[in-house]
Design brief:
One of its GO terms (biological process) is transmembrane transport. Belongs to the binding-protein-dependent transport system permease family. The radius of gyration is 28 Å and the shape is flat. It is built from 13 helices and 4 strands. The longest helix has 35 residues. The strands form 2 sheets. It has a two-stranded antiparallel ribbon with strand order 1-2. A two-stranded antiparallel ribbon has the order 3-4. The protein is mainly alpha-helical.
Length: 323
């Protein structure tokens, strides 16, 4: 206990508190209302993100159908079974094929459309942007059901158009043929999500100062030269970020595949998320524990993409600061 004398007054203070702890307590108290307003978000994040992750790890070590009270602890047996499951590797391979095909198309086509729609002299540019973004905000399950009717071999408008133009002699079963089902799903997926990639590129184009283009025109650069030597080099730091964001979004294709093909025919469109759902809930004998183990393994793959994205963002920020 310390005795402090100041101008004849005597005060008694307790044990000395470290200065760093006092500063932290003072800062928390001064910003207390910010923490109060953050509390609902933190609570919801804990209930709907942190707790499901923890519970999935726990369930992945159980032999449980998710319905009854009878469940047994099996440790890492579900993980060993998953790593030896050929359908799991097939579903992961199909997911990676979808990423490898759709991501370059979405990124390249989105950049091309963004360059066109970013022209201030283009008439109805805002209308075209809205039209391309409408599928993004449309419910994926509804799109999947509607596309099932559109590609229906028995009277669907796509087959009817192909027959009327004489391109095919008989209807094509786009979603029922293993050779075309995956390509059809990928086409619908690219059409639906092109708008979000377009927004990424439009946002990146807005970061290029107008003075740079004015300087290029002063030096005699035309439209093509400005695109080649000004626009594309300044967009390069954003490329990796947009590619990784698009890849992570593409891994979440569950609802579209489920409503269009349900993973068929003959597992030709069986993505990882659909296979996890089938094992955990939709099979004749649900295996929630095994499905949780599959989900954890797929989550690790997603986490790897997220880590690469973080590295890419750091690289892009460094490249922008040095340019």
């Amino acid at each position: 206990m310390n005795i402090v004398t100041r101008e004849g007054a005597v005060t008694v203070s307790g044990p000395a508190v470290p200065a760093r702890r006092r500063r932290l307590a003072t800062r928390i108290w001064s910003e207390r209302w910010a923490y109060v307003f953050l509390l609902p978000t933190l609570l919801l994040f804990g209930l709907y993100t942190v707790w499901p992750i923890i519970s999935s790890l726990f369930y992945s070590m159980l032999d449980w159908n998710g319905l009854g009270a009878e469940r047994s602890f099996v440790g890492l047996a579900n993980y060993r079974e998953a790593l030896a499951d050929p359908l799991f590797w097939k579903s992961l391979g199909i997911t990676l094929v979808i990423i490898a095909v759709t991501v370059p198309v979405r990124v390249g086509l989105g950049l091309l459309v963004a360059l066109v729609l970013n022209n201030p002299r283009l008439p109805l540019a805002k209308l075209f942007r809205t039209a391309l973004f409408v599928p993004v905000v449309t419910t994926t399950a509804i799109i999947g059901v509607v596309m099932g009717f559109i590609f229906d071999p028995a009277g669907g408008p796509v087959n009817q158009l192909l027959l009327d133009l004489g391109i095919v002699d008989q209807p094509v079963d786009f979603l029922g043929d293993p050779g075309s089902s995956l390509w059809t799903v990928m086409g619908v997926h690219m059409w639906k999500w092109l708008g979000i990639t377009l927004v990424y590129w439009l946002a990146a184009l807005q970061t290029i100062p107008a003075t740079v283009y004015e300087a290029a025109r002063t030096d005699g650069a035309g439209g093509w030269a400005s695109l080649r030597y000004v626009t594309l080099p300044m967009l390069k730091p954003f490329l990796l970020i947009i590619v990784l964001l698009t890849a992570i979004e593409t891994m979440q294709i569950f609802d579209l595949v489920l409503t269009m093909t349900n993973g068929g025919p003959y597992f030709s469109t069986l993505t990882s998320e659909v296979y996890i759902y089938q094992q955990a809930f939709a099979s004749s004998t649900p295996r929630l524990g095994y499905g949780a183990a599959l989900g954890v393994l797929f989550g690790l793959v997603t986490l790897a993409f997220t880590a690469i994205q973080a590295i890419g963002i750091r690289y892009a920020n460094r490249a922008r600061s040095t340019s």
